[in-house]
């Protein structure tokens, strides 16, 4: 259990919650842009270095996932025990520096090293940022705040699709990569100079902060609500990363679009996902006033709507461009409903000294399963289905991956069932003010 900080702790001008949240979101956006931009730059990079598709897959997916897997939980635990502001500065700065270094790559191995090493930005920066946001905003505003931070991913994807492709076409892929890295470094300096470490929520157990990483992981995983939330997130991200990695190729192969036209549709979907994430956070904050279980009910609604919408999109006949645009925008809108409420729920059922570790565990599951396996597994399925399905093999492969939303729904349902007991167990009323802090009434 933990003690909630007094209400005015969230409002103090020292912390400037809105400014801090905005800067954390922009840092996340550029980190995600750095992560996604190579997908836009794949063709010129492949031609310059003579790379195979397998090497491209290692650079854009598996290398990042493995590095994240090694660093995610240890850095998350470090964020729970030390100053988060310093960790964010180091990790985001390292990510920006490695992005700029990637622009000087002379071959596959240097590019793989810079891209894989860039995972440190998300491995340490995201859990620490999520923990900081949880301390900046009270529980009744937390889902909305989390949705703003989560929108950084969609904003970064949009910037990579639109800005990255424009810069690469005008000045080359090296300039595009270097630009992202340099801007990230400048933003990191601004963060370090203008943001202060917010006050942490007080813990009911002083030993929590000294608990080992393995002990914290075991305790988080042993709780049914956190375990099922992590499983649900892994299933959604497996479907989501598969779709995101192959959707542009699907639009080109199945609907006969040019890369530019497919990029515009993908950009519209990215914008829609950002709006959907913001809507879900606001909706969760409103509905949880009636029933706290809506914190997990909102993700369930989003996944339940995304599944049939995505399947309808994938089953469209070739050339149905207008219908495809509408359906993929709707799919992207609903699929991101899980993000902000899930992280808000996670922050409410674990002790403050384990928030970053719990977030890192969820991010790790998504990185290894979603980012690491999604694109590769989809490609393998498409190859196996090609003799039977022909040119529709990719659509069928994506449909099979989209079916992972069904176990995600079941996992969210299990988490929802365990949510109220966990919430009550982790909640302790705010202590009454001491005589020294009680305002004088004159009576």
Automatic annotation (TrEMBL):
Tell me the ranges covered by the Major facilitator superfamily (MFS) profile domain, including all copies.
20-416
Q: Which CDD domains match?
A: MFS_spinster_like (cd17328)
Return the GO cellular component terms, semicolon-separated.
membrane
One GO MF term attached to the UniProt entry: transmembrane transporter activity
Describe its membrane topology. Multi-pass membrane protein
* Coiled coil stretches, renumbered: none
UniProt keyword annotation of Chaperone present: no
Subcellular localization, per the record? Membrane
What is the protein's name according to its record? MFS transporter
| A Pfam family reported for this protein in Swiss-Prot or TrEMBL | MFS_1
Recorded source organism is Rhodoferax lacus
Q: Which InterPro entries match?
A: MFS, MFS_dom, MFS_spinster-like, MFS_trans_sf
């Amino acid at each position: 259990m933990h003690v909630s900080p007094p209400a005015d702790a969230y409002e103090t001008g020292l912390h400037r919650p809105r400014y801090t949240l905005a800067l954390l979101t922009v840092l996340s956006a550029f980190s995600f842009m750095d992560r996604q931009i190579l997908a836009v730059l794949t063709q010129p990079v492949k031609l310059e270095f003579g790379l195979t598709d397998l090497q491209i897959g290692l650079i854009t997916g598996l290398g990042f996932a493995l590095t994240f897997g090694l660093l995610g939980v240890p850095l998350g635990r470090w964020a729970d025990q030390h100053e988060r502001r310093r960790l964010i500065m180091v990790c985001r700065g390292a990510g920006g520096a490695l992005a700029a270094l990637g622009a000087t790559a002379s071959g596959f191995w240097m590019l793989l090293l810079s891209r894989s090493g860039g995972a440190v930005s998300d491995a340490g920066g995201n859990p620490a940022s999520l923990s900081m946001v949880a301390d900046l905003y009270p529980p009744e505003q937390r889902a909305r705040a989390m949705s703003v931070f989560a929108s950084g991913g969609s904003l970064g994807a949009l910037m990579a699709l639109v800005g990255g492709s424009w810069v690469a076409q005008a000045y080359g892929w090296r300039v595009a990569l270097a630009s992202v890295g340099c801007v990230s470094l400048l933003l990191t300096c601004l963060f370090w100079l203008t943001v202060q470490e917010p006050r942490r929520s007080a813990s009911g157990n002083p030993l929590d902060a000294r608990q080992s990483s393995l002990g914290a992981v075991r305790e988080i995983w042993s709780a049914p609500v956190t375990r099922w939330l992590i499983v649900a997130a892994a299933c959604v991200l497996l479907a989501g990363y598969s779709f995101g990695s192959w959707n542009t190729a699907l639009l080109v192969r199945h609907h006969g679009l040019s890369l530019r036209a497919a990029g515009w549709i993908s950009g519209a979907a990215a914008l829609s996902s950002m709006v959907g994430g913001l809507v879900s956070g606001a909706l969760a904050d409103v509905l949880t006033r009636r029933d706290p279980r809506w914190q997990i009910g909102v993700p369930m609604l989003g996944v339940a709507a995304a599944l049939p919408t995505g399947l309808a999109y994938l089953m469209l006949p070739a050339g149905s461009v207008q219908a495809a645009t509408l359906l993929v925008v709707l799919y992207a809108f609903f699929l991101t409903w899980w993000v902000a409420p899930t992280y808000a729920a996670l922050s409410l059922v674990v002790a403050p000294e384990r928030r970053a570790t719990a977030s890192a565990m969820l991010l790790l599951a998504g990185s290894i399963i979603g980012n690491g396996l999604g694109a590769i597994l989809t490609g393998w399925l498409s190859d196996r289905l090609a003799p039977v399905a022909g040119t529709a093999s990719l659509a069928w492969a994506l449909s099979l991956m989209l079916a992972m939303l069904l176990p995600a729904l079941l996992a969210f349902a299990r988490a929802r069932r365990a949510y109220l007991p966990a919430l009550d167990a982790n909640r302790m009323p705010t202590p009454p003010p001491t005589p020294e802090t009680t305002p004088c009434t004159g009576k």
